[in-house]
TrEMBL record:
GO biological process: translation
Assembly with partners or alone: Heterotrimer of A, B and C subunits.
Source species, domain of life: Bacteria
SUPFAM superfamilies documented for this protein: Amidase signature (AS) enzymes
Protein name: Glutamyl-tRNA(Gln) amidotransferase subunit A
Keyword rRNA-binding: no
Domain Amidase: 26-465
PANTHER family in the record: GLUTAMYL-TRNA(GLN) AMIDOTRANSFERASE SUBUNIT A (PTHR11895:SF151), TRANSAMIDASE (PTHR11895)
PROSITE patterns per UniProt: AMIDASES
Catalysed reaction equations from the record: L-glutamyl-tRNA(Gln) + L-glutamine + ATP + H2O = L-glutaminyl-tRNA(Gln) + L-glutamate + ADP + phosphate + H(+)
Molecular function GO terms recorded: ATP binding; glutaminyl-tRNA synthase (glutamine-hydrolyzing) activity; transferase activity
Species, as recorded: Oscillochloris trichoides DG-6
Amino acid sequence: MTDLSSLTITSARAALDAGELTSLALTEALLARIEQTEPSVKAFLTVTAELAIAQARAADATRGAATHSPLHGIPLAIKDVIATEGVRTTCSSRILENFAPPYNATVMERLNAAGAVMLGKLNCDEFAMGSSTESSAYQTTGNPWDLARVPGGSSGGSAAAVAAGQALGTLGTDTGGSIRQPAALCGISGLKPTYGRVSRYGLIAYGSSLDQIGPMAWTVADVALMLQVLAGHDPRDGTSANLPVPDYSAALTGDLRGLRVGVPSEYFVEGMEPGVEQATRTAIEVLRDLGAEIVPVSLPYTKYALPTYYIIAPAEASANLARFDGVRYGPREPGESMWDQIELTRGHRFGAEVRRRIMLGTYALSAGYYDAYYKRAQQVRTLIKRDFEQAFTQVDIIAAPTSPSVAFPIGQKTDDPLAMYLSDVCTLPINLAGVPGLVVPCGFSENLPVGLQLIGRPFDEATLLRAGDAYQRSTDWHTRRPALG
Ligand code: GLN
């Protein structure tokens, strides 16, 4: 068997089912790969080697049972904002240092029931606030294509772990682009499902009206297998949609004839790197060659998405993060009174970016400013959503760039929050509208990966996956691997 760490979920599944591979051998190979590459990649905050071996053994013991999930025995890793029972879950923050949740997120219960193996917890921006993973309180993850560059963020550890061959698939979360932008920057595939498609129960909230958990892996076929396990109604999440979940793998027909693909001029923003624009436009031509009809569309409110998002997301974050007071979760700083303790704990243990968001959000929600900022932003959000509704009367999906640039050097934007926020201009509107977005690798610019973003109608992940998979059947970008140690 070839190098196990370069397998996809689909190829590992075939080898497991054929009896050519055991989950234990695969898991041990990935743990060895993690040990070998972590000193330079730094994608993991916690490696759960013992648990992984035990889960792999259990999977091998139950293999061959009449029916089992496609993820049975498959080693995965999880962004550290998702609650894992008894396993440290830090949100990359000092305020949750050594916090071990007493329960599992619904997605973890689903993965466990499917027989998946958990290799560990992945680094991200603190509380998922950022676009480079540099706001983690613990470490800076390197991009496996160039370790001096960021992997994107906030799910940078999730993207880097796949790209470095440390895990066959990972979970990320996406509030404004945090699955799609790092997938693009690390040359892998990633899906932000429709808001409500995947349960948020046990996801430590950032912006509750925007957050979604989603799969990241080399191929769209793998993303489809993972979504099948993750998606579905959860009564413990009041915003979870009670809708049937289609058979996503069956939707991958390879046929794009007649599919209407909209291309919004507003997404080819000023300042976009020419290599990114070129790779994106070439990818759209591939869709045309496959039989899709390319239609220009307009999403005129796109230019308001960034300011709208940076009111709504911090407002929700300021409310969500109020619970971290050193009393209910995590460590507590000593102080004379209860109020001193809370102030010291929050002041010392939240990082600069998180404190900035809390202040922005508290300001936007405060009496006298609420109407001018928060209420206004919610109104503009409705207009942005209508842009998409209007476009989807003309087209079935929308194709656009994911990020205006390729992976940037570590440290380049850390002192310039606005420049960092601009990395998400092409991904934020999708969260504001609540629609699904898929990223597939579509080429390289200056030897760094570029990702094509496909945007779909609400709850129509199947069409997005069909388009992304058809693209991958006729291109080989998703088979490229970084030359890492
Ligand atoms: N970079 C954006 C932010 O900092 C999006 C982050 C995310 O999607 N979690 O808010």
